[in-house]
Amino acid sequence: MKPIVCALLLCLFSGVVHAGDDGPQRNLVSLAVSASEEVASDLLVVRMMVLHEAAKQATTADRVNDDMAWALATARAVAGIKAQTLDYRTTPVYEDRQIRAWRTQQSLRLESADTTALTALLGTLQERLAIESIGYEISPALREAIEQRLIDSAIAAFRGRASQVARAFGRADYGIVNVNVGTSGYRPPPPVAYAGRALAMKAEVADPSIAGGEQTVTVDVNGTIELGGD
Protein backbone atom coordinates (compact mmCIF):
# COMPACT_ATOMS: atom_id res chain seq x y z
CA MET A 1 0.00 0.00 0.00
CA LYS A 2 1.28 3.46 -0.91
CA PRO A 3 2.27 5.51 2.16
CA ILE A 4 0.13 8.52 3.05
CA VAL A 5 2.25 11.61 3.65
CA CYS A 6 1.06 14.61 5.66
CA ALA A 7 2.97 17.84 6.17
CA LEU A 8 2.60 20.78 8.50
CA LEU A 9 4.33 24.14 8.53
CA LEU A 10 4.65 24.82 12.23
CA CYS A 11 6.05 28.30 12.37
CA LEU A 12 8.33 30.85 10.81
CA PHE A 13 10.41 33.04 12.97
CA SER A 14 13.37 35.37 12.67
CA GLY A 15 15.70 35.49 15.58
CA VAL A 16 19.19 36.41 16.59
CA VAL A 17 21.38 33.37 17.11
CA HIS A 18 25.01 34.16 17.74
CA ALA A 19 28.14 33.30 19.62
CA GLY A 20 28.73 36.94 20.50
CA ASP A 21 26.72 40.12 20.50
CA ASP A 22 27.20 40.70 16.78
CA GLY A 23 26.16 37.26 15.47
CA PRO A 24 24.19 36.87 12.22
CA GLN A 25 20.42 36.97 12.04
CA ARG A 26 18.82 33.65 11.05
CA ASN A 27 15.46 33.01 9.42
CA LEU A 28 14.21 29.72 10.83
CA VAL A 29 11.19 27.61 9.89
CA SER A 30 9.89 24.63 11.84
CA LEU A 31 8.32 21.82 9.82
CA ALA A 32 6.62 18.52 10.64
CA VAL A 33 5.65 15.74 8.25
CA SER A 34 4.41 12.20 8.70
CA ALA A 35 4.09 9.12 6.53
CA SER A 36 1.49 6.47 7.35
CA GLU A 37 0.51 3.10 5.98
CA GLU A 38 -2.36 0.73 6.71
CA VAL A 39 -0.88 -2.69 7.42
CA ALA A 40 -2.69 -5.99 7.62
CA SER A 41 -2.16 -7.58 11.03
CA ASP A 42 -0.17 -10.77 10.63
CA LEU A 43 0.20 -12.12 14.17
CA LEU A 44 -2.60 -13.78 16.12
CA VAL A 45 -2.18 -13.46 19.89
CA VAL A 46 -4.28 -15.46 22.33
CA ARG A 47 -4.26 -15.51 26.11
CA MET A 48 -5.71 -18.53 27.90
CA MET A 49 -6.02 -19.46 31.54
CA VAL A 50 -6.51 -22.42 33.82
CA LEU A 51 -8.14 -22.02 37.22
CA HIS A 52 -8.90 -24.50 39.98
CA GLU A 53 -10.38 -24.14 43.43
CA ALA A 54 -10.13 -26.68 46.26
CA ALA A 55 -10.04 -26.91 50.03
CA LYS A 56 -6.29 -27.57 50.02
CA GLN A 57 -3.76 -25.29 48.40
CA ALA A 58 -1.64 -28.21 47.22
CA THR A 59 -4.61 -29.69 45.41
CA THR A 60 -5.25 -26.56 43.35
CA ALA A 61 -1.55 -26.20 42.55
CA ASP A 62 -1.29 -29.80 41.36
CA ARG A 63 -4.32 -29.43 39.10
CA VAL A 64 -3.11 -26.17 37.57
CA ASN A 65 0.40 -27.52 37.07
CA ASP A 66 -0.94 -30.65 35.41
CA ASP A 67 -3.24 -28.74 33.06
CA MET A 68 -0.56 -26.23 32.11
CA ALA A 69 2.05 -28.91 31.48
CA TRP A 70 -0.43 -30.62 29.15
CA ALA A 71 -1.22 -27.32 27.39
CA LEU A 72 2.45 -26.47 26.87
CA ALA A 73 3.24 -29.91 25.50
CA THR A 74 0.26 -29.71 23.16
CA ALA A 75 1.16 -26.21 21.93
CA ARG A 76 4.84 -26.97 21.43
CA ALA A 77 3.95 -29.97 19.30
CA VAL A 78 2.49 -27.57 16.69
CA ALA A 79 5.04 -25.89 14.42
CA GLY A 80 5.09 -22.10 14.24
CA ILE A 81 3.41 -21.42 17.59
CA LYS A 82 5.15 -19.57 20.42
CA ALA A 83 3.93 -20.37 23.93
CA GLN A 84 4.72 -18.50 27.16
CA THR A 85 3.31 -19.01 30.66
CA LEU A 86 2.27 -15.94 32.68
CA ASP A 87 0.82 -14.81 36.01
CA TYR A 88 0.88 -17.87 38.26
CA ARG A 89 -0.86 -17.02 41.51
CA THR A 90 -2.69 -18.59 44.42
CA THR A 91 -5.22 -16.70 46.53
CA PRO A 92 -7.39 -17.65 49.50
CA VAL A 93 -11.18 -17.73 49.25
CA TYR A 94 -12.78 -16.30 52.40
CA GLU A 95 -16.12 -16.97 54.00
CA ASP A 96 -17.06 -15.31 57.30
CA ARG A 97 -13.46 -14.07 57.58
CA GLN A 98 -12.18 -17.62 57.46
CA ILE A 99 -10.30 -19.27 54.62
CA ARG A 100 -12.82 -21.59 53.01
CA ALA A 101 -10.76 -22.68 50.00
CA TRP A 102 -7.79 -21.90 47.78
CA ARG A 103 -7.85 -20.72 44.19
CA THR A 104 -4.86 -21.14 41.87
CA GLN A 105 -4.65 -19.88 38.32
CA GLN A 106 -2.12 -19.39 35.56
CA SER A 107 -2.22 -17.83 32.09
CA LEU A 108 -0.77 -19.00 28.80
CA ARG A 109 0.13 -16.62 25.95
CA LEU A 110 0.11 -18.07 22.45
CA GLU A 111 1.11 -16.30 19.25
CA SER A 112 1.51 -17.37 15.65
CA ALA A 113 1.39 -16.05 12.11
CA ASP A 114 -0.37 -19.29 11.16
CA THR A 115 -3.96 -18.42 12.05
CA THR A 116 -5.31 -21.77 10.91
CA ALA A 117 -2.93 -23.77 13.08
CA LEU A 118 -3.44 -21.63 16.18
CA THR A 119 -7.21 -21.59 15.78
CA ALA A 120 -7.26 -25.38 15.57
CA LEU A 121 -5.02 -25.59 18.63
CA LEU A 122 -7.43 -23.43 20.61
CA GLY A 123 -10.20 -25.93 19.99
CA THR A 124 -8.04 -28.60 21.61
CA LEU A 125 -6.75 -26.51 24.51
CA GLN A 126 -10.27 -25.42 25.49
CA GLU A 127 -10.83 -28.92 26.79
CA ARG A 128 -8.86 -27.86 29.88
CA LEU A 129 -8.15 -24.14 29.54
CA ALA A 130 -10.38 -21.12 28.92
CA ILE A 131 -9.77 -18.26 26.51
CA GLU A 132 -9.18 -14.92 28.22
CA SER A 133 -8.63 -12.79 25.12
CA ILE A 134 -7.94 -12.93 21.39
CA GLY A 135 -6.35 -10.19 19.31
CA TYR A 136 -4.23 -9.40 16.28
CA GLU A 137 -0.94 -7.53 16.19
CA ILE A 138 1.70 -6.57 13.65
CA SER A 139 4.73 -8.80 14.03
CA PRO A 140 8.03 -7.07 14.95
CA ALA A 141 9.64 -8.11 11.65
CA LEU A 142 6.81 -6.69 9.54
CA ARG A 143 6.61 -3.50 11.60
CA GLU A 144 10.38 -2.95 11.20
CA ALA A 145 10.15 -3.39 7.42
CA ILE A 146 7.21 -0.99 7.17
CA GLU A 147 8.91 1.62 9.37
CA GLN A 148 12.08 1.53 7.26
CA ARG A 149 10.05 2.24 4.14
CA LEU A 150 8.07 4.99 5.86
CA ILE A 151 11.23 6.65 7.17
CA ASP A 152 12.46 7.06 3.59
CA SER A 153 9.07 8.47 2.54
CA ALA A 154 8.83 10.86 5.50
CA ILE A 155 12.37 12.20 5.08
CA ALA A 156 11.79 12.72 1.35
CA ALA A 157 8.57 14.58 2.21
CA PHE A 158 10.41 16.73 4.76
CA ARG A 159 13.06 17.70 2.21
CA GLY A 160 10.41 18.39 -0.42
CA ARG A 161 8.41 20.57 1.93
CA ALA A 162 11.55 22.43 3.02
CA SER A 163 12.40 23.19 -0.62
CA GLN A 164 8.82 24.34 -1.23
CA VAL A 165 8.89 26.68 1.76
CA ALA A 166 12.26 28.13 0.72
CA ARG A 167 10.99 28.83 -2.80
CA ALA A 168 7.75 30.35 -1.48
CA PHE A 169 9.79 32.82 0.56
CA GLY A 170 11.97 33.63 -2.43
CA ARG A 171 15.04 31.91 -1.04
CA ALA A 172 17.51 29.98 -3.15
CA ASP A 173 18.14 27.19 -0.69
CA TYR A 174 17.89 26.09 2.92
CA GLY A 175 19.93 24.36 5.59
CA ILE A 176 18.81 21.87 8.21
CA VAL A 177 19.30 23.14 11.76
CA ASN A 178 17.92 20.05 13.49
CA VAL A 179 15.66 17.11 12.65
CA ASN A 180 13.95 14.35 14.62
CA VAL A 181 12.65 11.04 13.28
CA GLY A 182 10.28 8.89 15.31
CA THR A 183 7.47 6.38 15.06
CA SER A 184 3.96 6.79 16.37
CA GLY A 185 0.42 5.76 15.71
CA TYR A 186 0.80 2.00 16.18
CA ARG A 187 -1.07 0.57 19.11
CA PRO A 188 -2.20 -3.03 19.13
CA PRO A 189 -5.99 -3.06 19.19
CA PRO A 190 -7.55 -4.17 22.46
CA PRO A 191 -8.04 -7.93 22.44
CA VAL A 192 -11.50 -9.42 22.52
CA ALA A 193 -12.07 -10.41 26.15
CA TYR A 194 -13.58 -13.71 27.12
CA ALA A 195 -13.63 -13.16 30.88
CA GLY A 196 -17.27 -14.14 31.12
CA ARG A 197 -16.42 -17.56 29.76
CA ALA A 198 -13.37 -18.15 31.91
CA LEU A 199 -14.85 -21.10 33.77
CA ALA A 200 -16.91 -22.50 30.90
CA MET A 201 -14.47 -25.23 29.90
CA LYS A 202 -16.08 -28.18 28.15
CA ALA A 203 -14.87 -31.52 26.89
CA GLU A 204 -15.58 -30.59 23.27
CA VAL A 205 -15.34 -27.01 22.03
CA ALA A 206 -15.64 -25.77 18.44
CA ASP A 207 -12.75 -23.78 16.99
CA PRO A 208 -13.38 -20.03 17.48
CA SER A 209 -14.08 -17.81 14.46
CA ILE A 210 -11.29 -15.24 14.12
CA ALA A 211 -10.68 -12.46 11.59
CA GLY A 212 -7.81 -9.98 11.47
CA GLY A 213 -7.82 -6.37 10.38
CA GLU A 214 -5.57 -3.47 9.45
CA GLN A 215 -3.58 -1.18 11.70
CA THR A 216 -1.82 2.11 11.02
CA VAL A 217 1.95 2.49 11.26
CA THR A 218 3.22 6.09 11.24
CA VAL A 219 6.66 7.71 11.05
CA ASP A 220 7.01 11.37 12.08
CA VAL A 221 9.77 13.73 10.96
CA ASN A 222 10.02 17.21 12.44
CA GLY A 223 12.76 19.77 12.58
CA THR A 224 13.94 23.28 11.89
CA ILE A 225 15.42 24.65 8.70
CA GLU A 226 17.25 27.90 8.03
CA LEU A 227 16.30 29.78 4.89
CA GLY A 228 19.27 30.61 2.66
CA GLY A 229 20.08 33.71 0.70
CA ASP A 230 17.91 35.45 -1.86
How would you describe this structure to a colleague?
This protein has 230 residues and is an alpha+beta fold. The chain folds into two domains: 1-42 and 138-230, no CATH class; 43-137, 2-Layer Sandwich (Alpha-Beta Plaits). The protein has three helices and nine strands; from the N terminus they run E-E-E-H-E-E-H-E-H-E-E-E. A five-stranded antiparallel beta sheet has the order 4-5-3-6-8. It has a four-stranded antiparallel beta sheet with strand order 1-2-9-7. The longest helix is centred in the last third of the chain and has 29 residues, at 140-168. The protein starts with a strand and ends with a strand.
Which structural category do the helix and sheet elements fall into? alpha+beta
Question: Biggest β-sheet: count, sense, barrel?
Answer: 5 strands, antiparallel
Gyration radius over CA: 28 Å
Q: Whole-Å distance between the termini?
A: 40 Å
Name the average pLDDT: 84
The number of helical elements comes to 3
Strand order of the largest sheet: 4-5-3-6-8
Structural shape: elongated
Task: Annotate the secondary structure layout.
Elements: E1 4-16, E2 25-40, E3 43-54, H1 57-76, E4 82-95, E5 98-112, H2 115-125, E6 130-137, H3 140-168, E7 174-184, E8 192-193, E9 214-227
Antiparallel strand pairs: 1-2, 2-9, 3-5, 3-6, 4-5, 6-8, 7-9
